[in-house]
Structures are given as C-alpha cells and as structure tokens.
TrEMBL record:
Residues 322-390 form the THUMP-like domain. The lineage of its organism: Bacteria, Pseudomonadati, Bacteroidota, Flavobacteriia, Flavobacteriales. One of its GO terms (molecular function) is methyltransferase activity. Residues 279-321 form the PG-1098 ferredoxin-like domain. This is RsmD family RNA methyltransferase. Keywords: Methyltransferase, Transferase. One of its GO terms (biological process) is methylation. Gene3D superfamilies: Methyltransferase PG1098, N-terminal domain, Vaccinia Virus protein VP39. It comes from the Bacteria.
Length: 392
C-alpha cells in the first residue's frame, strides 16, 4: 500500500477524473511526488466500478482500492446483504476473504468476524478499509484460510467460503473441482470447526450435477439482481439429510421477487399445459436457474405453453415472480401472417424456438425497442407461434 494515494490532493484528482477517458489520463501523466501514476489510474478504474456495485465504499473518503480484477470478483452490496440475513450467532470465519464485502455485512449480524486473505497486499487494503468504515468487530488475517482455521483450532458458528474461480493462468473456471480450494476435498475439515458452512459458487454451476457431489446441502439460494443471475449459495449443515429447500430471489430497485420450493417437489409434480390465454408470464432468471418449471405451474395454478418453452399463461392476471404481459394477438409463425401485424419495431424473446433473435430480426426486418413485445415460441400442440404482447 502506498498511503500517499490517500492524500487529499490525489483523492480529489481521482474523484474529478472518474468519468475521463483513462487512455487520455495515461498520456497526460501527473506530477504527484512519490506516487506512480499507474497506481492512480488503477485507483480511478477500481473506484469507478464501485459506484453502483459498492456504493458504501464509493461514497466514503479514504477508501483504498485494489486492482479492478478484485472488484470484479467481489460480491455486490446487494448480494452481500442478502447473505448476511441467512446467518446468526457469535462467530464467523471467511476463509477466502477477498475484498471483504461479505465480511462487512456479516459483521452486522455476527459478533466477531474473521477475514482471511492469503494475498498480503489485499489483506492490508481490506484492514485499512474496515477501519475507515468503522467495522471494528472484524479481524483481518493475512494468511491461507484453511491454515488459519486449523491454527486457531476453535469452533465457529459459521464458515463462509467463496472458492477462487480462476485457474493457474487466470482463466475463469466454475466447476467445484476446478476452483481453489476444492470444497469436496476440504468439507470434512470444515465440519470439524463448524456445523454450518455457506458456499458461494458461480451462477453457471449445474445444480442437479452439484447435488450429486456435495454432501449435507440444506438450502440452495439462487440470487439474481435486476433479472441477472449473480450467485448460487449453498447452505450446508453437518449430517443434514432431510429435504433440500431451494429459494429464489430477484432483487429489484423497489422490491424483490421470491419463490421457494423443496427440491424433490419438482420431480414429483407435472405441469399443467394449455394454449396461450389472456396473459403470458416469463419467469425471472433466478427461477429459470433453479429449474422450478413444474412446481411453478402447480403452486401458482397456471399453465405452461409447452414442456420445454418455460412460458406460462392464465385467464386471470396473477402476481408472478417474473415479467407479465397481456396477449394482444396470437398468430402462426410465417412471414405472410406476420406482415399483417405491421410491426417494424419490437422487443423479441425466444423460448423453445429454432431461430435466434438476430435471425428473426433479419428475416422479418424488425428493429429493436418500442412498446411491443413479441414471443416466438412453441405451443402445447408443437406448433410454432408468435405472441404479440403488451408489458404490464
């Protein structure tokens, strides 16, 4: 850490240049004594990425930022806050601490939080920032988390782990066996020191396949923000062998959409199927990730258009964890019928349809945008149809 970066004049320069083209700043250079201009550029790039993702850090003075890769890999404040509401007790240890956003929010629920980060430089940065943020119940340790866990030799109410999803040559990976540390190899060790383990994984991870490899799963949380899948959380409890609950949440600006079910229910239920009626529903990304296709139909008493379409319909409008539309027109998929609609601009969604959105736009000459929504899909009679809709 170069603490001169926190000098008032340099901090002012960083703030004033957040929206300036970085390439121009590099060419221009600076005259701040004792500080490499590259470090200042690094601070600008990292802080800029925090404006929406980490507003608490962004809005506080004297925050020291790591490189932008660390910012990319860290949890957002929205998802960190969600995770914090899942834990309680007196002690928690994060054995893969990173930039420390999760620990900051855990510290609002847990009496004493231990943050472990093997990268000494990053650990110093996090320790400084915790002091700036008055997070005084977090202890930062610059060491390997597993080694620290064994060295401390104490019981914790919770262990949190977010394995690194970068391989030896910095390529992105997501399978548990490719991440470091490999949770499958260390789970027995973790349960020596805690009965409760929370695991964060990539949203790309296949849930069904992972359940075959991972023991003692109690809950799976599919977390989306503004309909973009961000995280899969796995809550593990020592010796747990009962029903697994899947909880989906789509965090939005003014509200959140939730839908919960037992994992075994999906395989035991059959969805209801029907032609499109008055309203069409598109599940949010958290539900799509969870695979709650049959149980969604059963619990909400709505119909699927087709087994593989993942679009739902009903006669009467209902509350729904996703987007809702009123159906204006239903036509068979062919160019002649489509031209009768006189639609030249629309938002297009495909579900169980052989063409891509780009192919459809080129073939039917449809520009992007506007207030018209077109769903290209397959109905329960295996016929390709176009649904012209209005968003509710």
């Amino acid at each position: 850490m170069n603490l001169k970066l926190l000098n008032t004049d340099i901090q002012t320069y960083i703030t004033e240049n957040l929206n300036v083209d970085v390439s121009k700043l590099i060419l221009k250079g600076s005259d701040f004594e004792g500080v490499d201009h590259k470090l200042i550029i690094e601070q600008i790039e990292a802080k800029k990425r925090c404006k929406k993702k980490l507003p608490t850090w962004f809005s506080n003075k004297n925050i020291y930022y790591p490189n932008k890769l660390n910012i990319e890999q860290t949890s957002s404040e929205l998802t960190a806050s969600y995770k914090a509401n899942l834990v309680s007790g007196k002690t928690l240890i994060d054995i893969t601490g990173g930039f420390g956003v999760d620990c900051y929010y855990f510290s609002k629920q847990i009496d004493t939080v231990t943050h472990c980060e093997i990268n000494t430089k990053l650990s110093k940065i996090v320790k400084h920032n915790y002091k700036t943020l008055n997070a005084n119940n977090i202890k930062s340790i610059a060491n390997d988390g597993l080694e620290t866990l064994e060295a401390l030799n104490q019981s914790f109410d919770w262990i949190y782990i977010d394995p690194s999803r970068r391989d030896d040559i910095k390529n992105k990976v997501f399978l548990l066996t490719d991440c470091q540390p490999n949770i499958k190899n260390i789970l027995g060790l973790l349960f020596i020191y805690s009965k409760n383990v929370m695991l964060k994984t990539s949203p790309l991870l296949d849930i069904s396949a992972t359940l075959k490899d991972l023991k003692y799963v109690k809950e799976i949380h599919c977390i989306a923000v503004n309909n973009e899948m961000k995280e899969l959380l796995w809550v593990l409890q020592k010796d747990y062998n009962e029903a697994i609950e899947v909880k989906t949440i789509n965090i939005q600006k003014n509200s959140s959409q939730t839908f919960n079910f037992l994992c075994k229910e999906e395989g035991l239920k059959e969805a209801f199927h029907s032609k499109a009626s008055n309203y069409i529903y598109e599940p949010n990304s958290a539900i799509l990730k969870s695979g709650a296709f049959n149980i969604l139909s059963n619990k909400l008493n709505i119909y699927k258009l087709h087994k593989h379409s993942h679009l739902y319909t009903s006669d009467a409008l209902i509350e729904f964890p996703g987007r809702r539309f009123s159906i204006d027109t239903i036509i068979p998929y062919n160019k002649k019928e489509f031209l009768k609609l006189k639609v030249t601009k629309a938002n297009i969604t495909i579900r169980n349809f052989p063409l891509s959105v780009n192919d459809i736009r080129k073939k039917l000459k449809i520009k992007d945008g506007g207030d018209i929504y077109l769903f290209f899909t397959t109905n329960n009679e295996n016929k390709r149809v176009i649904l012209k809709c209005s968003k509710l």
